[in-house]
Amino acid sequence: MLNLRRISHETKTRDMSTAIDTLLNDSALDAGLHQIAQAVQQEKRLTVEQGIYLYEHAPLGYLGVLANFIREKKHGDKTYFNRNFHLEPTNVCLYTCTFCSYSRRIKKREDGWELSLEEMMEIIKKYDEEPVTEVHIVGGVLPQYDLEFYSQLFSQIRAHRPDLHVKALTPVEYHYIFKKAKVSYEEGMRLMKEAGLQSMPGGGAEIFHPEIRDQIAGGKCTGEQWLRIHEIWHELGMRSNATMLYGHIEEFKHRVDHMEQLRQLQDKTGGFQTFIPLKFRNQNNEMSHLPEVSAVEDLRNYAIARIYMDNFEHIKAYWPMIGRTTAQLSLAFGVDDIDGTIDDTTKIYSMAGSEEQNPALSTEELVQLIKAVGRHPIERGTLYNVVQDYQDFDFSQQPKKVKKGFVGLPVID
Ligand code: V47
Ligand code: SF4
């Protein structure tokens, strides 16, 4: 069995090189694209101009060959997922991001939910018997959710369940709560670490360039502030993720600028784990008049991210946002991680019009989804430690567990 797998991996490595050689030997290939394919083969970094060139000129098939070449060089067929759930303290928010379908403006706060510390701990405790490894905490920004509140929440979760990784909040919340508490970013992040925060998710990044950010996310932290808070967190020896919200009013140059700024910070700190492109979904928000980009553009975007972000180990497709089918396809376009089981605990994307209205997959379903497209499923912890290799795992040998049912979140609309 082991031998067979080794042979198949070697065959695959040969196939990847052959595919890229075939591209390079194609006399009809545009000179700019030829140069980029050569750079990828020789592991040379792309320039900003080459990034834009890819968006403007590269066909999907070409991008797939390059992105898969890099993906398989880094990870072979390995495809990561985790067992997680989300905790969303509130969907009421002081800010008014035009892409947000989730937040109930402060003036209409009676339409939303605002969980107390006790209610949040109740949700955490409902998972006591479940083999989840991560809680992902993110939501709206409100004054009562301050430094003290989150310090207590993190320390209570850690005290209750030390094996549950707390991945929580973004620079949007941190900028607000530190300002309110009159502490510097450095001091604030140190306090969060002390309280039990273990890593930061990638949200709130949107598009860094002020030409776009000022129009879609006015009032919340700037791109510079977002990057600075991650930098400080990395300097404390901690890890985080990064996202990019694409497919609305931004141009290709803004996407490349966004990725360039992340690539530069990653050169400095090495603290980012994964890059997560997030497709703008257009239901129930102030940009509903904009059409959504196609699945082809989603795949092109994943592939360009994989090619451009040479110092990011992982590229993640967040399946509750793009749906299971595109998530499966993305695994041939540079993606090696599809996030987690979720357990129907996030409303951000269902409210924005995602196909996945009640996002929840069992471990077995996630494993099948990955295996169905010929990849090798690995359950990881938040920091990419291997929890379980599912390649040869036999689910029929497992004791049947009675599903307790989803933990309900207040649902509005
Ligand atoms: O910052 C909000 C995005 C983000 C819409 O780090 C929307 O592992 C599309 O960051 N259409 C929050 N996107 C979610 C997030 C995340 C998700 C999964 C995994 C991780 C991780 C991070 O959701 C926001 C914003 O960019 N968002 N509304 C919308 N209508
Ligand atoms: Fe608030 Fe976040 Fe929605 Fe912006 S995206 S309005 S910060 S919940």
What's the gist of this structure?
Helix content is 43%, strand content 13%. It is α/β, with parallel strands linked by helices and 413 residues long.
What would you say this structure looks like, in words?
It is a single chain. This protein is an alpha/beta fold. The chain has a domain at 78-89 and 198-391: TIM Barrel (Alpha-Beta Barrel), CATH 3.20.20.70. 43% of the residues lie in helices and 13% in strands. It contains 15 helices and 13 strands. It has helices at 2-24, 31-41, 48-57, 60-75, 117-126, 147-160, 171-181, 185-195, 210-216, 223-235, 252-269, 295-308, 319-322, 324-330, 363-371, and strands spanning 78-82, 84-87, 92-93, 104-105, 134-137, 165-168, 199-200, 239-246, 272-279, 314-315, 337-340, 376-380, 386-389. The strands form four sheets. Strands 11-1-12-13 form a four-stranded mixed beta sheet. The protein has a four-stranded parallel beta sheet with strand order 7-8-9-10. Helix 4 packs across helix 12 and helix 7 (171-181) packs across helix 10. The chain is globular, with a radius of gyration of 21 Å. Mean pLDDT is 90; it is low at 1-7 and 402-413. Ligand V47 binds at residues 99-101, 138, 201-204, 206, 241, 243, 245, 276, 278, 280-281, 285, 318, 339, 348, 352. Keywords: 4Fe-4S, Iron, Iron-sulfur, Menaquinone biosynthesis, Metal-binding, S-adenosyl-L-methionine, Transferase. S-adenosyl-L-methionine binds at residues 99, 206. One of its GO terms (molecular function) is 7,8-didemethyl-8-hydroxy-5-deazariboflavin synthase activity.
